[in-house]
Amino acid sequence: FVTTLRPTPGIAVRAGPGLSFALTYHPAFSVPYDISIDADVSGLDIEMRISGKALYTPHAIVLGAALARPRFRLALDLSWSMWSLIGDPFVRVETRILEVGLIVPSNPVVPMKDTIAIRLGGEWSAIAAASIDLVLRAGLSWESPIVGPQSGRSNVMDGHKIGAALG
C-alpha cells in the first residue's frame, strides 16, 4: 500500500465587497494497479499480468468567480482538464503460456482531447426569518467531450455533458 500526496495549490482574491476570484491547479491523480496470476490448468502453465490505472483524474486548472449579496450568491467557474496527457486509457493484459509464449493484445488508439467545462450556480434566500430559512439553489454545467469521432473495431464513447440541478 502506497500513500499518495496530491497538493492542490490555489489563490483567491477578494476584489470588492462580496466579489471574489480564485485560480487553482489540480494535479493528475490515479491509483495504479498491477495484478499477477499464475495458474496451472490441467498441466498447462499460464501466467497473466493485468495492469492499469483506476480513479484517474487529469491535471486541471480552474478559474472561478463568486458574487455574494445578503440574499443571494452566484458562482461561475471555468476549468481546463488535460485529458490528452493520460496516454493509453485501457487495461493492459499480458498472458504467457509456457508452450506458446507471450501474448500481448494491442489496445485501440484513442485520441484523448483536453476538455473545457463551465459551471454556474446560484443560491437565493427566499425566506430568512428567526426560526425558518428557505434557500433555493440551482446550477447548470457543460463539459466538452474527451474523445472525438472514431471508426475502429473498439471505440470509446463520449459526448457533450450537460447538467442541471435544483435544490
Please, could you describe this protein's structure?
This protein has 167 residues and is mainly β. The chain is 0% helix and 60% strand. The protein is built from no helices and eleven strands. A hairpin with a 2-residue loop joins strand 3 (29-41) and strand 4 (44-57). The model has no long low-confidence stretch (mean pLDDT 89).
List keywords for this structure.
167 residues; mainly beta; 7-stranded antiparallel β-sheet; 4-stranded antiparallel β-sheet
Name the beta content range.
over 45%
Q: Give the tally of β-strands.
A: 11
Main beta sheet: strand number and arrangement? 7 strands, antiparallel
Order of helices and strands: EEEEEEEEEEE
What general outline do the C-alpha atoms trace? Answer: elongated
Number of separate helices: 0
User: Helix fraction?
Assistant: under 10%
Summarize the structure.
By secondary structure, this protein is mainly beta. The chain contains no helices and 11 strands.
